[in-house]
């Protein structure tokens, strides 16, 4: 199974196939609008604008599982993204990324790229160690703005933890695009 085999719900409630991204690299991000990392939207949008014509697509999935930092409706989230960060990449419907109700796409992403989350992630590691110690050492998404890179064939290549920003990702992707 590849990422292209999954369907997702848009913010408007429609279902779309991720197969439409076949042939492009895909950066899948769980996002939130009331998080200390929310300014990453700006960098993600810049990355989107700088690389879309070279084969990278970015898609966001709002999630309210981390400190209830994405409490809005899908419509409110769309408005926030547009007005606050001029986001033009797709931000789909709100999902859960962990637990029994985790979206099947995120179960697949987590399994394919369990991550390597440790003390090198500084403040976020300290925060997660205190607020969600059960997540340490698991494949769970640890916090908002975890990013998964998918290759043009739909295979999960790697996972970028939340502290890895869009500029660093851009540098790592430059040779691929």
From TrEMBL:
PANTHER family: GLUTATHIONE PEROXIDASE (PTHR11592:SF78). SUPFAM superfamilies: Thioredoxin-like. This is Glutathione peroxidase. Coiled coil: none annotated. Keywords: Oxidoreductase, Peroxidase. GO terms for biological process: cellular response to oxidative stress. One of its GO terms (molecular function) is peroxidase activity. It holds the Pfam family GSHPx. Belongs to the glutathione peroxidase family. Transmembrane segments: none annotated. Gene3D superfamilies: Glutaredoxin. The active site is at 35.
């Amino acid at each position: 199974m590849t990422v292209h085999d999954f369907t997702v719900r848009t913010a408007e409630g429609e279902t779309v196939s991720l197969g439409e991204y076949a042939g492009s690299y895909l950066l899948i991000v769980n996002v939130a609008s009331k998080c200390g990392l929310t300014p990453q939207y700006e960098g993600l949008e810049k990355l989107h604008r700088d690389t879309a014509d070279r084969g990278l697509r970015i898609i966001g999935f709002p999630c309210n599982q981390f400190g209830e930092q994405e409490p809005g409706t899908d419509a409110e989230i769309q408005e926030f993204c547009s007005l606050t960060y001029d986001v033009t990449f797709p931000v789909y419907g709100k999902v859960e990324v962990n637990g029994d109700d985790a979206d099947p796409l995120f179960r697949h992403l987590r399994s394919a790229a369990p991550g390597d989350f440790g003390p090198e992630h500084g403040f976020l590691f300290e925060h997660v160690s205190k607020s969600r110690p059960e997540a340490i050492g698991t494949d769970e998404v640890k916090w908002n703005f975890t990013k998964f890179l998918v290759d043009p064939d739909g295979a999960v290549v790697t996972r970028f933890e939340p502290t890895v920003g869009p500029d660093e990702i851009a540098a790592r992707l430059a040779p691929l695009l």
